[in-house]
């Protein structure tokens, strides 16, 4: 893939690798005896590996292709493959975490394998490793096709993709070593956070530059969602991770916030990470790949725009519903609850818009497992957003909070919405990118769909039941006013549900492994097809269209 860079671009890539190697060497030397030193070694090794790839191509002839007549899909291809790798790793860690709760001896009596260390490896591996790489890769693809313009750069897409994965590796390895800020979805320490800011700024600039050079006057709504995801996540990450390092030669840092301000900042970040990383970005996927696969225009383009602005405005205020019955001022709790309930309108607008787009194409949903992934994802998006608004109500939250009901809600969104729309998008785009007629095996796609759906339903129903039982047991009192059940009693009651959760997660993981195998075989063994007309200056009649009536 490096052979497609010009000589000047290869030299720039080599300079970046050298700078990264120096940074890694300095970190390794300065942080001896500290986890920071280990991370420096990881940075040095990563820079060395990429340097080898660049050096292998440094003397190759200049690329002969006319860049004005083709899209740049190499980073997209790599991003999709890496996303599937993280899917297997992250979901595999999730099954291990779930199994530990059912059978605690699976910890192996080792510090690195304790629940508190491998649980963030699971969450970060799935959210950032799997979801993040899928978002970056599909955004490259969608941005070029809907803009009819090639990516505005050839080094920067690789810098974003590989730099983001370096962040993921540093984060995951840090968790196993006990490095954490103890912030939900924001555990990496200060130097990893700074690196992610650099990567994300380059990503934002790349996206804006590509849109600025578009040959299509209209900016399709999928790009609105992707751009909101990029911009707002940057703001959230920077504010929530403001911290003072204890030492420039060590990993430990201290948050710039304290007490209730720290809690409010964390959940402003945490809930909006769900809003803009796990919702807005994946709605960008939905609004492109579902109409494309169904070969139908989006049902209502106006509704998609109204939904966008509703989500952007309402979501940003909703984070405080995570802090009901705490020291947070009552009016702030009520504000979060109110906006959470109002969020139901734009969220269901998007889910309904997606399902109405399938009018006239339901026979395709029946026959096409890829489209079925997307349809079920839209259904789970509607269900999980309704549940989230419902759980934000203070009276409901008094029962649900701190229980497994919340875990079930999160995974209804993560497995049923995020993962299913991602797998559907991957199955839709892989044959196109690798110029194949079809996936290697559509039977495996069918198997994956039913395994994923069964795993999600088993997991979510187990956690719903577990959470409601937990909440009721915790608030049951005897006639004398003491708690009727001990904490141990609740653990015994939860055990069957924890076994069911581990089984549901194992089914979902099996589906992800089938997906990775199917994609690998499609790339390696599927017969070639003749390249289609797929270049920037053509009229993209098959792109998601705006209905004339709109």
From TrEMBL:
Pathway: Energy metabolism; oxidative phosphorylation. Heme b 1; low-spin binds at residues 122, 411. It is a multi-pass membrane protein. This is cytochrome-c oxidase. It comes from Mameliella alba. The lineage of its organism: Bacteria, Pseudomonadati, Pseudomonadota, Alphaproteobacteria, Rhodobacterales. GO terms for cellular component: plasma membrane. GO terms for molecular function: cytochrome-c oxidase activity; heme binding; metal ion binding. It is an enzyme of class 7 (translocase). Heme b 2; high-spin binds at residue 409. Residues 530-550 are annotated as: Disordered. The keyword NAD does not apply. NCBIfam families: ccoN. Keywords: Cell membrane, Copper, Electron transport, Heme, Iron, Membrane, Metal-binding, Respiratory chain, Translocase, Transmembrane, Transmembrane helix, Transport. Its EC number is 7.1.1.9. Binds 1 copper ion per subunit, denoted as copper B. Binds 2 heme groups per subunit, denoted as high- and low-spin. Belongs to the heme-copper respiratory oxidase family. Its cofactor is Cu(2+); heme b; heme. Residues 80-550 form the Cytochrome oxidase subunit I profile domain. It catalyses: 4 Fe(II)-[cytochrome c] + O2 + 8 H(+)(in) = 4 Fe(III)-[cytochrome c] + 2 H2O + 4 H(+)(out). Signal peptide: none annotated. Cu cation binds at residues 271, 321-322.
